[in-house]
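Hi team,

As requested, here is the filled-out complex form for the magnesium ion run. I kept the field names the same as last time so the parser does not choke. Let me know if anything looks off before we queue the next batch.

— J.
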Amino acid sequence: MNESLFRLRDVTRRYGSRQVLSIDELEIRQGEILALVGPSGAGKSTLLRLLNFLEPPSQGTIEFLDEQIDPDRQPSLELRRRVTTVFQRPVLLRRSVYQNVRYGLQLRGQRDGAGQIDRVLEEVGLVDLAQAQARTLSGGEAQRVALARAMVLEPDVLLMDEPTANLDPYNVGLIERIVTRLNREAGTTTVLVTHNVFQARRLAHRVALLLEGRIVEVADVQAFFEQPSDPRTAAFVRGEMVY
Amino acid sequence: MSGIALALSTVIGIPLGAALGLTRFVGRRLVIAVMYTGMGFPPVVVGLFVYLMLSRSGPLGSLGLDAIPELFTPAAMVVAQTIIAFPLVAGFTMAAVMGVDPNLRLQVLGLGATAWQATWAILAEARTGVIVSVVAGFGGIISEVGAVMLVGGNIEHSTRVLTTAIVLETRKGNFELAIALGIILLSLSFFANLAMLRLQGSSLNE
Ligand SMILES: Nc1ncnc2c1ncn2[C@@H]1O[C@H](COP(=O)(O)OP(=O)(O)OP(=O)(O)O)[C@@H](O)[C@H]1O
Ligand SMILES: [Mg+2]
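And here is what came back:
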């Protein structure tokens, strides 16, 4: 649980002249659930894109396992495929639910995933909708497809960008149980972006607060909420920070 | 022959349209401007251009290379038809892929797609529009008379196609034959489009 999986050093991300991320150091440990909290526009989604190697850092290095990624060196496809994301606003393919869940396996040339797909559909409660058009689903159903298409890949790292925002309590509970189970049983390292401090408290081992692109504090969940070392964390936990 | 021209237009037009729609490169605007011009270009002018290029004294024809088709051959007509149709295919393909949510590419990459797989996924998402682009190219080819007449010469059993035959028969006063040919042309076009509609499949109803 304490081995480091990701290590970011002096990582920045700029869009044009605007710097939206500046992380001196951040470690993500093998097998942990790290909650990433912070106000809107803090750079949470941007950080996840870097961790999924969808964008290179503007500066600095990201170590992942034995590979080092920097502005000039992109990760291998094999490495990239060990990480996947459940996006903040999932865009599903204009195909059936089943085909959406199968898609990532197809990309990897895997043809024998039927059992896996059925199991995942079962777990997210979409068996009855397997043949439905993905684009016709409700928000909660679409979010569960997005989770299913990521889960079926059995990634080493699952990045989740506010996976339960705008969902009803039933869907929130379902998704939270799955995140916990994947972490316990499959050892899936998870980075969970959430606006919900209660959710962070329920699920995470450690919590990181991101503010204006900078990591203010990373701490074990209990310490983060009960003895925050930074006054801004204390304010955030008390809900005083305006979004 | 029109089939070959359509196949060529598709093979050139779809990748070109996808590239224009999905990437940003220097000169992209210029290429798009040229393509738009090509989409609305009077086919006769294309015919004239191809005629001048390919004629024995023209810049290409005078090279005498085997790879360059001679005037008044089916190959010359394929060249003219392709030039007429491929901007249509490229233009509609570009519009179609640009209509796909840009986040889709990112998300598909996040699921482990290579750049090619992601491009393919976008074309598949835009399939309704991509097929429309081929239909438009087909329409451009099958309805065309002027260029084909100029470049092909309307030679019997060789470069005479349905449209040029209709022109000829009408001029000769053989209206029944001209009408019959017209009906054949219409039905050909109808059945070809029906076939493409089948390809589009259920995506039309979504
Ligand atoms: N591709 C981009 N081009 C330019 N600016 C961008 C881009 N992506 C993000 N930004 C900017 O970077 C900042 C951080 O955005 P990001 O989406 O990472 O925030 P966030 O913490 O996920 O916010 P939210 O909680 O609202 O989702 C924002 O100000 C945003 O406008
Ligand atoms: Mg975000």
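Two things worth flagging: The mean pLDDT of chain A is 93. The CA atoms of residues 62 and 69 of chain A lie 5 Å apart.

Thanks,
J.
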